[in-house]
Amino acid sequence: MDALRKQASKIREQVARQAVFKQFGGGGHGSGLLDDAELHQHQKLEKLYISTRAAKHYQRDIVCGVEGYIVTGSKQVEIGTKLSEDSRKYGSENTCTNGNVLTRAALSYGRARAQMEQERGNMLKALGTQVAEPLRAMVLGAPLEDARHLAQRYDRMRQEAEAQATEVARRQAKARESQGNPDIFMKLESAEAKLQDLKSNMIFGF
């Protein structure tokens, strides 16, 4: 019997809350959403969070690709620099060849290769500082957290509105049973005003 009474009380509370939602301009949705404008706002927040999360994942993939390219390129620069040093060393140590042709070629190649690897190293550094690091900062930055906090804040406001609607329904029932007690009616008006404020914040506060 206690279980039946609790279930009946819960149903009465839900019906009363939906009636209050309807009274204050809502559509009485069973899901607890107040009206079409509120539902639209909820969907916008969901889309914002989903799209922001997708953008973050895409940025993270780009960062991984750029960082992989920088690591591979740096290894190639290291190998190329070693090759240029070996070429210069060979040219400096082998000066007995006919006309020093091979020596000059080795020295020229070593200098050219060293300059090329230096430019390539500068490009990789620029790629890291001007592309990878800003993207990494964006991935770790605030937009996704902001979207998540907005969604959480909205859910809290919706729960507050539903709890306040229950309070209004309770005070309405109490007012009907009272003999025109002004204190009860003042508390009812205050509860209704608070519910209206919560509804307005849910629709226009984002």
Question: Could you explain the architecture of this structure?
Answer:
InterPro entries: AH/BAR_dom_sf. This is SH3 domain-containing protein. It comes from Brassica carinata. The chain has five helices and no strands. It is mostly helical and 206 residues long. The protein has a domain of 82 residues.
Mean model confidence by pLDDT: 76
The run of helices and strands is: HHHHH
In whole angstroms, the N-to-C terminal distance is: 45 Å
For the largest beta-sheet, the strand count, sense and barrel status come to: none
Q: What structural class results from the helix and strand content? A: mainly alpha
Helix share of residues? over 70%
The total count of strands amounts to 0
The number of helices is 5
Which segments are poorly predicted (pLDDT under 50) over 5 or more consecutive residues? 25-33
Instruction: Kindly estimate the percentage of residues that lie in beta strands according to DSSP.
Output: under 5%
Radius of gyration equals 36 Å
Shape: rod-shaped
Protein name: SH3 domain-containing protein
Coiled coil: 144-178
Keywords: Coiled coil
InterPro entries: AH/BAR_dom_sf (IPR027267)
Quick take:
Helices cover 86% and strands 0% of the residues. It is built from five helices and no strands.
SSE topology:
Elements (H helix, E strand, L loop, with lengths): L1 H22 L12 H58 L7 H39 L3 H35 L4 H23 L2
Helix pairs in contact: 1-4, 2-3, 2-4, 4-5
